[in-house]
């Protein structure tokens, strides 16, 4: 009986130690507060999410990367548990503020879609703060060659939300859009995505004026100045616009490589997490050229 009690007590203590590994908080950055989570040891890796999503987008990456790196994920201003956006802002400046707050001098930056745009803009403006970049299914301010389908999709959701708010109908339209479609994900991931969309307040669709503003020159114009080794990832089934962006990144960034993730859509890290994790970890662990 005593052995059983001791084993049970050890299990409780071990669970407590494990729980203490994750640090969470609100970082005071400029005139806002950013929610963040941090775990692990080693080179820092910062994960940055897509529009309308939050830190939970990286659930399938979190433990896998925490075994190799110090992992940080945060909610961009206006999303998740961070303060809501009131005015246009530059999210790459918020990222700098977060790294300063956490006393992190240099980090790998992994971003998807909007997060990829933030990563690239940050790398261009603060090259000394970046180890490597992974830009997955990235958007790109300054880029205009988006397809009519993508323009119509985004235009429709903005029209619906700005006139009717962000309710079940609008959330369903966004979940069914090419940007949110999951091709290979399991049920748990599908539920996770639905919960993020339902928890999002819709501010950026209701009032696009508060969208992230990267300033001038645009990130597109700055790509040739990105010196960090860069991995461009794109889902095979992602909307054509993002393949165009990926190809442009390969042409403009000096030290770059590209991989296509078979069977994945726009949210490639959620659709094919094992492939995404393998490609990204291998890249981050390679010796810098």
TrEMBL record:
**Domain AB hydrolase-1 stretches:** 44-273
One example of the protein's molecular function in GO is: hydrolase activity
The protein's matches in Pfam families, at most eight in alphabetical order, are given as:
Abhydrolase_1 (PF00561)
Q: Which InterPro entries match?
A: AB_hydrolase_1, AB_hydrolase_fold, AB_hydrolase_sf, Epox_hydrolase-like
Signal sequence span is 1-19
Q: Name one GO cellular component term.
A: membrane
Keywords of the record? Hydrolase, Signal
Quote the PANTHER family the UniProt record gives. Answer: AB HYDROLASE SUPERFAMILY PROTEIN YCLE (PTHR43798:SF31), MONOACYLGLYCEROL LIPASE (PTHR43798)
Q: What is this protein called?
A: Alpha/beta hydrolase fold protein
């Amino acid at each position: 009986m005593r052995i059983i009690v001791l084993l049970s007590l050890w299990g409780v203590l071990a669970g407590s130690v494990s729980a203490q590994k994750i640090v969470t908080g609100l970082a005071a950055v400029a005139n806002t507060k950013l929610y963040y989570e941090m775990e692990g040891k080693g080179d820092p890796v910062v994960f940055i999410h897509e529009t309308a999503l939050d830190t939970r987008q990286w659930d399938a990456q979190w433990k896998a990367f925490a075994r190799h790196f110090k992992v940080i994920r945060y909610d961009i201003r206006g999303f998740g548990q961070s303060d809501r956006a009131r005015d246009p802002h530059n999210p790459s400046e918020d990222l700098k503020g977060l790294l300063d707050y956490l006393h992190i001098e240099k980090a790998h930056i992994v971003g998807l879609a909007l997060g990829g745009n933030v990563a690239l803009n940050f790398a261009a403006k603060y090259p000394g703060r970046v180890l490597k970049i992974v830009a997955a299914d990235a958007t790109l301010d300054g880029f205009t060659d988006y397809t009519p389908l993508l323009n119509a999709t985004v235009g429709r959701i903005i029209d619906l939300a700005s006139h009717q708010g962000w309710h079940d109908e609008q959330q369903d339209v966004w979940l069914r859009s090419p940007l949110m479609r999951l091709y290979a994900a399991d049920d748990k991931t599908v539920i996770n995505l639905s919960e993020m969309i339902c928890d999002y307040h819709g501010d950026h669709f209701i009032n696009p004026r508060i969208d992230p503003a990267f300033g001038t020159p645009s990130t597109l114009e700055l790509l040739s100045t990105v010196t960090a080794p860069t991995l461009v990832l794109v889902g095979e089934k992602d909307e054509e616009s993002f393949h165009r962006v990926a190809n442009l990144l390969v042409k403009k960034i000096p030290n770059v490589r590209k991989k296509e993730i078979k069977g994945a859509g726009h949210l490639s890290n959620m659709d094919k997490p094992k492939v995404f994790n393998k490609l990204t970890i291998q890249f981050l662990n390679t010796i810098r050229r």
